[in-house]
Amino acid sequence: MRVLIDLEAEMDAAYDPEYHGRLRARMWDALRDTPYDEHGAQTPGFSFSNPFPWGDLNEGDERQLLIASPREEQLAHIVADLLENPEVHAGSMPFRVTDTRPLDPDVGPPGTEGVLETATGVYAVTPPKYLDDPDEHDDETFWRSEHGMEAFFDHVETQLQRNHDRFMPSDDPGPKEVDAPLFESYEMIKKLWLDVQLSGDVEWTVLVSKWRFPYRVRDDHHRRHLNLALDVGIGRRTPLGFGFLNRQLENDE
């Protein structure tokens, strides 16, 4: 489940690619004193896109933001607070919420073909077993092409399994508990380094990658896994806005 948020720029501003920290803080502000006030949890559930479309802002310009979660009530708390307190800062970009509407994307029943695309970069970490000398690396060695695609998908499926364990029925197998892969084909769009404010006084430069994943839904389990990825994102640090997925529509270029 996700919600489309309509935004209006409150002043002229350059587009700020370091929007992650302040947007995440706004989500936590909205969830304060609710049953979903889980600040610090590894799998808090929500994920969000960048404010789009990309580009510098003039006062009054319209932008949109997507917020997703496997828990409808969590989204309801966020939306209620955004409507009551409509001020939103995405990095240095000040917005006011003007409207919201729910969306429920679905990859489709078994046999459906489509494409999932990352709207924001995937923060992927290479599991130590794929490194030549794991002792020389820390716990968050950014994935690079030379580490291989097996390492990338192992990380992605492991992170999704953690969300599956928390949010999905225990008798449904997760993406690491089935033989077939989550994605059978892929296209890397690009890799890029980003400066990200992780907290008030901590900034980190991270390596992320953007992807397209053509898919064909194998069965109902695969459908649930892909739809969960649409709700929670893929990779690590998805509550910071990394790894947000969209389903590419047929008329998209």
UniProtKB/TrEMBL annotation:
Which segment of the chain is annotated as a signal peptide?
A: none
The UniProt record lists the keyword Cell membrane: no
**Keyword tRNA-binding applies:** no
GO terms (BP aspect): defense response to virus
- Cite the entry's keywords alphabetically: Antiviral defense
- Record's protein name: CRISPR-associated endoribonuclease Cas6
- What region holds the CRISPR associated protein Cas6 C-terminal domain? 142-246
* Species for this entry: Natrinema hispanicum
What superkingdom does the record give?
Archaea
The UniProt entry, under Gene3D superfamilies, shows:
3.30.70.1900
User: Which InterPro entries does this entry report, sorted A to Z?
Assistant: Cas_Cas6_C, CRISPR-assoc_prot_Cas6
Gene Ontology molecular function: any one = hydrolase activity, acting on ester bonds
